[in-house]
């Protein structure tokens, strides 16, 4: 189903739309306040964008440098060309260690690769330990936001979900009680896990180390208790040197939630004695996106989610309406690169207002890329006949001033004299909730000619 | 010092008029057909400011409806016609931020001849032209009403007519500077200063549900802020909001900023 249809369904419950909009707008406002407190915020964005551009232009060198340094640190480095290879690599590590139970902190990459269903089909228990992720996992839903995975759920819904799955008592959605119960439940899972998977926020080419940012400390808890740590990263997550974290960590937390910094910015360099550490570097379409000049900058993304919080369409349609792992504006420029036909409605789910590009901490020109994808999609994906024909005809009419004058006159005549039931028929999507403009007696051309005549 | 600056400003504008700049009036297609009063106000306002304005009658559209829908290639004839109509002018001025933005930003699909480059460079949104080129902010208008300014996205984030709430730049606003000098006008503060209204061209039809919800929310913000008249530099946003206001019989009006700046009630 196209985004517009999903959005129309979401909009049937207007109170929920208002609630969703306000919840995310609140996060956007927190971000604004916190960014205002940083002197030179715009300069910081310029720096971050330039650093990422440098990384992408020299990705081959940085990747090999990172691998070499990570190996020196005693880490095993794996390369995965696609999601399938990634899943197989992770599975093979788990099989080698006889792992049956494992925990995972938030990783959009493993969502992208659909790792959970793959491992579950191979009889391995995977528990998402980020609270929001755990909620959507119990609800058997994908995350609806990359930073706030369960933002579409009200606390009362979580109450019912926990009663069903964790045996909690009804509590009217008391957040303190619910998080307390989640903590107990997860504590048990942490203690029994034989392996821990984390994502990677920043991989440092210069040292071979990497940084994982969480607010709940769940990545650390998992890694420190389990024998095996597997870190899965998209190949664009590199930064040249450790000092560059000074740019990115300042931007990430503020852009995401308005926090000065995430509660935990955990640096991992080498396995603890007697333990193993693996890094899986994943391509899965990134090289191809890198080759598309107009869309290359989409790989700057540090997954802060600010473009979702600011997007007036995302706020009013919910993350699930995008039907892609990464929803919202950034998802709408990344996903068509993975499957153009499946995601062809996403670049049109925007008014091109540009708020996403201005809020983006790494200055991705998101709305310009949406425009560019549109030009490609109408050529490569079959379009509804009506839309295509109307616009193609408009192209010819508007390129010819005589034809334009006739068309303008006829349209105004129609609007003025056609019966209301014809104008407001089902075919007129504009007129469903809006009146059409009232037509005046003449157009500007007529007025101007008249004035000239009377001069 | 202040007097010197004022003198200099007067000199600047007088000087410009003295050298007789040729200004072409760009009236976007939907304004021509549906809102002639906006075109009239624009022309009268510019003439009041001493500018000699010519309206090339062969003009049609800037091609934006096609470009934004993905049919940029089919709009080349439209863009070329625009250049033909306006290539002789020193300045091209139009009362619509998004159309002006389209000319400046998306005419890159044409071969970049000297004419095309000049037209792209010299096309201005009306407020921007008055504020930045003529250097005037007090236009002698009066409009004793409570007004809400809808900062249309393409004017704001495309042409940078003002500072945007996402960016940490010092505050400025071309339209506010002009409205603040209108006698009797009370500029109301909105809760969300630059949220999109949901028009978005063909988006308004193909994403009807979200588009109308966004429009409703935008109007409600103005109602909550005690606004009588919503204004802005882009009449397409106002057309969308007017459609909702009329359907829902809400107690406020929309007027293009040119109509307010040209009024002397």
From TrEMBL, chain A:
The keyword 4Fe-4S applies. PANTHER family: LACTATE UTILIZATION PROTEIN B. Transmembrane segments: none annotated. One of its GO terms (biological process) is lactate metabolic process. Coiled coil: none annotated. Keywords: 4Fe-4S, Electron transport, Iron, Iron-sulfur, Metal-binding, Repeat, Transport. Residues 291-312 form the 4Fe-4S ferredoxin-type domain. This is L-lactate dehydrogenase complex protein LldF. It holds the Pfam family Fer4_8. One of its GO terms (molecular function) is metal ion binding.
UniProtKB/TrEMBL annotation, chain B:
GO terms for cellular component: cytosol. One of its GO terms (molecular function) is oxidoreductase activity. It holds the Pfam family CCG. Residues 23-103, 148-241 form the Cysteine-rich domain. InterPro entries: Cys_rich_dom (IPR004017). PANTHER family: LACTATE UTILIZATION PROTEIN A (PTHR30296:SF0), UNCHARACTERIZED PROTEIN YKGE (PTHR30296). This is L-lactate dehydrogenase complex protein LldE. It comes from Mariniflexile fucanivorans.
């Amino acid at each position: 189903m196209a985004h517009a249809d999903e959005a129309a369904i979401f909009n049937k419950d207007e109170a929920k739309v208002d609630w969703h909009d306000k919840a995310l707008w609140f996060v956007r406002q927190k971000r604004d306040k916190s960014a205002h407190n940083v002197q030179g915020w715009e300069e910081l964005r310029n720096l971050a964008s330039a650093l990422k551009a440098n990384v992408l232009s020299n990705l081959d060198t940085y990747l090999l440098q990172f691998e070499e340094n990570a190996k020196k640190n005693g880490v095993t480095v794996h390369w995965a060309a696609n999601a399938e290879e990634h899943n197989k690599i992770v599975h093979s590590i788990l099989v080698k260690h006889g792992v049956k139970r494992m925990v995972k902190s938030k990783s959009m990459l493993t969502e992208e690769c659909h790792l959970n269903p793959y491992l579950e089909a191979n009889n391995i228990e995977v528990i998402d330990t980020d609270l929001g992720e755990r909620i959507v996992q119990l609800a058997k839903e994908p995350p609806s936001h990359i930073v706030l995975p369960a933002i579409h759920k009200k606390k009362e819904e979580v109450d019912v979900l926990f009663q069903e799955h964790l045996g909690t008592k009804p509590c009217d959605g008391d957040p303190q009680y619910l998080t307390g119960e989640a903590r107990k439940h997860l504590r048990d899972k942490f203690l029994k896990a034989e392996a821990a998977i984390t994502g990677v926020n920043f991989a440092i080419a210069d040292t071979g180390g990497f940084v994982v940012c969480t607010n709940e400390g769940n990545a650390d808890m998992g890694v420190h208790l389990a024998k095996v740590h597997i870190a899965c990263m998209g190949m664009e997550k590199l930064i040249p040197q450790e000092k560059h974290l000074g740019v990115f960590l300042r931007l990430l937390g503020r852009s995401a939630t308005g926090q000065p910094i995430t509660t935990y910015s955990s640096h991992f360099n080498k396995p603890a004695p007697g333990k193993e550490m693996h890094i899986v570097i994943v391509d899965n379409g990134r090289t191809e996106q890198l080759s598309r000049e107009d869309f290359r900058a989409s790989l700057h993304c540090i997954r802060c989610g600010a473009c979702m919080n600011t997007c007036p369409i995302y706020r009013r349609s919910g993350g699930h309406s995008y039907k892609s792992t990464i929803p919202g504006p950034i998802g709408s420029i990344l996903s068509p690169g993975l499957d153009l036909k499946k995601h062809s409605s996403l670049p049109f789910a925007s008014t091109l207002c540009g708020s996403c590009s201005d809020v983006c901490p790494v200055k991705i020109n998101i709305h310009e890329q949406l425009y560019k994808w549109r030009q490609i999609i109408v050529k490569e994906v079959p379009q509804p006949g009506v839309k295509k024909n109307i616009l193609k005809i408009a192209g010819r009419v508007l390129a010819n001033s005589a034809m334009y004058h006739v068309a303008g006159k006829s349209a105004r005549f129609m609007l003025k004299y056609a019966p209301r039931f014809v104008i407001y028929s089902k075919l007129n999507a504009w007129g469903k909730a809006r009146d059409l403009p009232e037509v005046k007696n003449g157009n500007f051309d007529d007025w101007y000619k008249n004035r000239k005549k009377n001069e | 010092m202040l007097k010197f600056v004022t003198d200099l400003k007067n000199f600047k504008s007088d000087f410009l008029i003295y050298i007789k700049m040729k200004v072409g009036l760009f009236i976007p297609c939907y304004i021509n057909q549906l809102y002639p009063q906006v075109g009239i106000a624009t022309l009268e306002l510019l003439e009041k400011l001493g500018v000699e304005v010519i309206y090339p009658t062969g003009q049609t559209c800037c091609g934006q409806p096609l470009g934004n829908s993905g049919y940029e290639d089919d709009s080349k004839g439209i863009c070329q016609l625009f250049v033909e109509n306006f290539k002789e002018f020193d300045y091209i001025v139009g009362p619509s931020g998004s159309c002006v933005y389209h000319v400046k930003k998306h005419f890159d699909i044409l071969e970049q001849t000297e004419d095309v480059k000049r037209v792209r460079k010299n096309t201005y949104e009306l407020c921007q032209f008055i504020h930045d080129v003529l250097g005037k902010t007090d236009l002698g208008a009066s409009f004793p009403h409570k007004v809400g300014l809808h900062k249309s996205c393409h004017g704001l984030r495309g042409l940078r007519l003002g500072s945007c709430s996402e960016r940490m730049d010092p505050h400025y606003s071309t339209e506010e500077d002009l409205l603040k000098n209108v006698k009797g006008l009370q500029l109301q503060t909105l809760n969300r200063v630059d949220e999109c209204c949901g028009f978005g061209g063909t988006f308004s039809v193909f994403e009807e549900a979200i588009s109308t919800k966004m429009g409703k929310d935008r109007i409600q913000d103005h109602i909550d802020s005690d606004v009588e008249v919503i204004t802005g530099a882009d009449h397409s946003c106002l057309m969308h909001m007017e459609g909702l206001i009329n359907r829902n019989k809400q107690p406020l009006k929309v007027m293009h900023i040119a109509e307010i700046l040209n009024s002397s009630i």
